[in-house]
Write the structure tokens for this entry.
Amino acid sequence: MGSRIKENPESTFEVYLEVVLVDKHSSAKPEVQRQFPEDYTDQETLQTVPQFCFPFSMDSLTVNQVGQNFTFVLTDIESKQRFGFCRLSSGAHTCFCILSYLPWFEVFYKLLNIIADYTVKGQESQWHELLASLHSLPLPEPGVPVHLGVHSFFTVPDTSELPSIPENRNLTEYFVAVDVNNMLHLYASMLYERRILICCSKLSTLTACVHGSAAMLYPMHWQHVYIPVLPQHLLDYCCAPMPYLIGVHSSLMEKVRGMALDDVVVLNVDTNTLETPYDDLQSLPNDVVAPLKSRLKKVSTTTGDGVARAFLKSQAALFGSYRSALQIEPGEPITFSEESFINHRSSAMRHFLQNAIQLQLFKQFIDGRLDLLNSGEGFSDIFEEEISMGEYAGNDKNYHQWLFTVKKGGGAIFQTVKTKANPAMKTVYKFAKDHAKMRIKEVRSRLKQREQTENGFSTAGSAVIDDDGMAGFASPAGAVPSEGPLRTWEDRRPITVHFGQVGLNEARPPTLLKRPSSNATAVPLPKRSGVDGRG
């Protein structure tokens, strides 16, 4: 259904690289110091990855990214995403990087922390054995516990479930750093497929906000240029004339601002302000926006999947009636009628849907659904469950006619349809009990503990679950030596809104709205290899 996640990759990860910046004040490029597997020979990847490992201005005196975990994305020839999971260490001179098709953020971040610990201690054989075990591991099913050694243990994440706070660090950091109003504006801009820039001075928060915001489009997927963090040598991509979702480190924004950025939506995470030349949020049907805003404010003080579910309900309200537009004729492939999809809705909804049918994310979604229907496979996911439980489907008699026809035809395919759902589907509507009553003060405290751990102040032990509740690799025994000055959550530049709550002594920065510019200049996108350039 338009997903850019590769199914069944050959291995858990493609390559591990330790990239070193010999002198950040010189013009020398980062170099690969060592790698695993040693016989990995993809030269294009070996030349591309180091540039993404240091995506900030080397001359910036404010850069202090030691212990930072962040992610870049490369795109293969089939437009599938390859995730580069990174950890900066040793005064931002060394970057540990794992390239994988699997979106296992928490797992790979924990693995990188272990590798960094082994490296600091000079335990060469341990990190090599750990990587060898993981690389040779057959891809396990979601929820399966995996042991890679005495101190290395993780549970395979289930990417079909809705992301929860605080388990999903991307959504957690996004919702803590950006207030509800700006989240709504960004969501609307993505639905209109704008050119979107997100900037932040902290790499982990920057890439988390890009991934977290994009995940709220589920069951649809951003289909255009997608670069969670942009290295300095590729800043020309900010002038691309097509839709994009790009993250830029704050140290590079002065250069970006000097470019032709007409009609670009800019979210500054450090100041929690959003600039937009569009009225996208006002253009969405109010009977969808108002409930979404209300739900987000209600769940803003608790944890669990409430944030993701609020957006899921909005997606169902906007697009769930696609079932009523399915055209079924005996002996003919099932088709989708755009006219039927639009005409039976309210005037406000019709205005939005007339634009929506032109969106790449919607076209990819419909094509994927039709492929599954016409192949007889059917589908059952959280989105379809939400449609069935809500009042979004309208008159979807054609969809039910398909189900009846398949069932009448023998039942084998119908049984497949019914059993397609993951067993976890039975509990997707249960709130995360372990964290439902956790308040924002506790979440912020645990984020602080996690940052202390990642900055080199972890305590000894090999617990499988972190203090912040994020499951992943267990830490090896022994404390990780400090690699730089401690940076806690409070050390960041002020974020005025946390989980939708305004601080007692803080004022909410206004959303900056600019009118569309009439002199926008379209600059051809430079041809580069290894970067997401799908249009």
